[in-house]
Amino acid sequence: MTAPPAPPAAPASSVPVQVKRHHWIVRLTHWATFVLLAGMVASGLQIYTAYARFGERGGPYYINPFQDREFPRSVRLGGWLAGGLNWHFTLMWPFIAAGLFYLSYLVTSGEWRSLLFRPRDIRGAIEMQKYYLRLRKEHPAQGKHNPLQKLAYTFIIFLGALSVLTGFAIYKPTQLSWLTALFGGFQAARYWHFWAVWFFTAFLVVHVLLVFVVDPASLRAMITGWYRGRFPSHD
Amino acid sequence: MIDRRGFLRLAAGAGPASLAAACGWDGGNAIRPALLDVSRLNDWVGEKILFSAHRLAPQYPVSERTAHLPSYFISPMTPVLKDPATWRLLVTGLVRRPMSLSLDDLQALPRTTYTVKHHCVEGWSAIASWHGVPVSTIVERCDPLPEARFIRFVSFDSDYSNGWDLASAIHPQTILAYGMNDNPLPAAHGAPLRLYSPTKLGYKLTKYLVSMTFTAQRPGGYWEDQGYPWFGGV
Question: Cα(A151)–Cα(A90) distance, rounded to whole angstroms?
Answer without folding.
Answer: 31
